[in-house]
Design goal:
With about 200 residues, the protein is of the alpha/beta class. Helix content is about 30%, strand content about 30%. The chain contains 7 helices and 7 strands, in the order ααβαβαββαβααββ.
């Protein structure tokens, strides 16, 4: 899907994604001191807004201005400030080493495009900072619930970890995590990829 497709999807009055943050974002940032955060492919801003509520100075990046129109409204209602940047995660040139936390959550792209986005995310990570990547895992297609049905955009922790190490980051954790999803047919399990890295300094 390109930006126009996402704009059309976000044009619906209701939120496309849940209003609350992703559970792994909450868990993996619990030990971090709030500073400057970048939420890549932020969508309607659910994680960005939650981070702002936790005391982070947050910049949200996404190529859908329609998503950000909704995100601004939610942020205003929550009484928090977020800097919104409309740009493509695969081509945007971030300020170098400017963010203490860089989040890439559920950015499901073909291999070359994902690598380009991760390189830029790594570039934006400050010395001592954390880069957190979360997404639908390749095993979710056969063994999990939800997520894209296209194997070409599903994540593999080892591959993501290699990309981040090649970009100069130190690996902290990489693997699969399970996420419970409530559905009309009961509780189901989604399999996600989670990779956490940091820039030494």
């Amino acid at each position: 899907m390109d930006a126009r497709d996402w704009d059309a999807r976000y044009a619906a009055p209701a939120l496309v994604w849940s209003a609350g943050p992703n559970r792994f974002v909450v868990e993996e940032t619990a030990d971090l001191i709030p500073g400057r955060a970048l939420d890549v492919a932020a969508g309607e801003g659910r994680n960005a807004i939650w981070l702002a509520q936790e005391g982070w100075q947050v910049t949200a990046l996404d190529f859908s201005p329609v998503a950000f129109d909704k995100g601004r409204a939610v942020a205003d209602a929550a009484g928090v400030e977020v800097t919104w940047i409309v740009a493509d995660a695969t081509t945007w040139e971030p300020p170098a080493q400017a963010f203490d936390l860089v989040l890439v959550a559920y950015l499901q792209l073909p291999r070359a495009a994902l690598r380009a986005a991760l390189e830029r995310a790594a570039m934006a990570t400050a010395p001592g900072g954390t880069l957190l990547v979360i997404g639908h895992d390749h095993d979710n297609l056969e063994r999990g619930y939800g997520g894209p049905p296209d194997a070409g955009v599903l994540l593999d922790a080892d591959t993501v970890a290699c990309d981040l190490e090649a970009a100069g980051l130190e690996l902290v954790a990489a693997g699969q995590v399970e996420r419970e999803v409530e559905t009309d047919d009961g509780r189901r399990t989604a399999i996600d990829c989670l990779v956490r890295a940091r820039r030494l300094g």
